Amino acid sequence: MAYFEHEGCTLHYEEYGHGVPLILIHGLGSSCQDWELQVPVLAKHYHLVVVDIRGHGRSDKPRERYSIEGFSADLLALIEHLRLEPAHVVGLSLGGMIAFQLAVDQPHLLRSLCIVNSAPQVKVRTASDYWQWAKRWSLARILSLDTIGKALSNRLFPAPEQADLRRKMTARWAKNDKHAYLASFDAIVGWGVQERLSRITCPTLVISADHDYTPVAQKEIYVKLLPDAQLVVIENSRHATPLDQPEVFNTTLLDFLKNVETTTQDH
């Protein structure tokens, strides 16, 4: 467990293993704790860095507006703090948006990019979009984090054999700071870098759960805009794929990373 400071905010990160750097960025209301099923596997092969983004986990939770650009700037500061060579970067959901932002702004810092159940923009365009976001925005403000945690766990881990995972994740979500959670939620709406995706020249893997919030078809559209990207769909999974399908997720990611390393050596 280690800390560094960026723009007056103390941020928590953890390092494991040796070799080429591999950075994991968690999603909204999560923390580096939620990579627990990846850390032991990935740390055998890479210098693994997991970070709690501002407002989450053991990082500070400043009372201010958050932005995807700000989260990305924190990540850039961590890369510079650790003096990392170009890294493999993996982002889940909100973490995927942060990874996209870093990749379009600082493409030279990425050896590869892996985006999990995420998108390069969240634009509210249609009446239906507005209604969906208004509903989620209102519920996030009205409901307690305990209630939100229960609802999310029931939705993401519905199977009878996932009862322990449901209980554990409900308890974790309930520990979130409400102000930081809402500020992070607000940072997502209206953000986008889709028109700049051609800047991402590194090999890119897009992982989508078959039952993610957004359909696979939406991922197929933006994968075509990336210069060197492939899409893998993981079956019987919802939004938290690293937790509900850890073995398939880990194998898929490791196969991709090994392929990137091999191709890089060949050139």
TrEMBL record:
Keywords: Hydrolase. One of its GO terms (cellular component) is membrane. The keyword Hydrolase applies. Residues 21-244 form the AB hydrolase-1 domain. GO terms for molecular function: hydrolase activity. InterPro entries: AB_hydrolase_1, AB_hydrolase_fold, AB_hydrolase_sf. It holds the Pfam family Abhydrolase_1. It comes from the Bacteria. This is Pimeloyl-ACP methyl ester carboxylesterase. It comes from Pseudomonas mucidolens. The lineage of its organism: Bacteria, Pseudomonadati, Pseudomonadota, Gammaproteobacteria, Pseudomonadales.
